[in-house]
């Protein structure tokens, strides 16, 4: 089996789960060639991501002249396949149009077509028989078009929420139909994919959980006392619900004088988030750490009694798994795949978009006896190890590759 992975931007600090998956596949003697369109190396802080960057073939770093030359050579030699792939890219571009006439979407998809021809060429050179894309967005589009241009069969993993926000614009149904198989990371995710294809395609939609490496989570530090002290980890973006969390903190603060929250991450909404904190007069109750490597995230979890996840939209967040593996109960909104992991003995789920419900959960947490909270942390750890061991997930995924004849 000759396998390659394709990701638009790789590695990234927020995509360490892809690195873990690849490395787990390689531990069971399934080597993976890494393709990415571009690197995010300027933002990488984790040594594992930096090493992974050096192992990845970044297509756009070949330069435009070489890129177009490679693509043109491949397409000229395959005129019929190129015509069909061009028509497919044009149609996909119309569905994902950037304007009323579809010009922006079509232009993007013609760029994807060039990238696809280069990927098809490289797969041929390397003898790669199966291409697996992560995310059902542009990386899956490139894999789809590469297949149409005579490249290898493909599959892809859908994470959400982006794919679920725009399934028609992303031609999600067409991608599922053309793929050898498709991976959803939760049963909720699978249900959403089933909406966009006929039932005869449902069997090819598999559930394979993203995973953690249990050996990297030794016995956790004891839960701190006082507080409550909480941590939230993620990009400062609209889908993460941080504005709502700040409002919930403001509601709960009068009853909880020692309430404190550490925010690990950064992003486009940083100024808005800091402005909200100041507006509510909550500055002393917040610590903003910026992006942290895995060790930094672990330290933040060690200093908290629970993780809080106020998101409006998710797939199934890795930070949820990491917090539970670190023996921390969680407070999370009941969205997407979250209720499949968080049970009543491992934490609390609350309705999304409800600041009062989030504040009530903070108050409930403060009233739980330390022994009971520690018991919930142990239950969280056992549950995530049972459901999200990356070696088990990789073994399941490898089986799907083999069944597809890769």
TrEMBL record:
Coiled coil: none annotated. Residues 110-216 form the Glycosyltransferase subfamily 4-like N-terminal domain. Keywords: Transferase. One of its GO terms (molecular function) is glycosyltransferase activity. InterPro entries: Glyco_trans_4-like_N, Glycosyltransferase_grp1. The keyword Transferase applies. This is Glycosyltransferase family 4 protein. It comes from Tabrizicola oligotrophica.
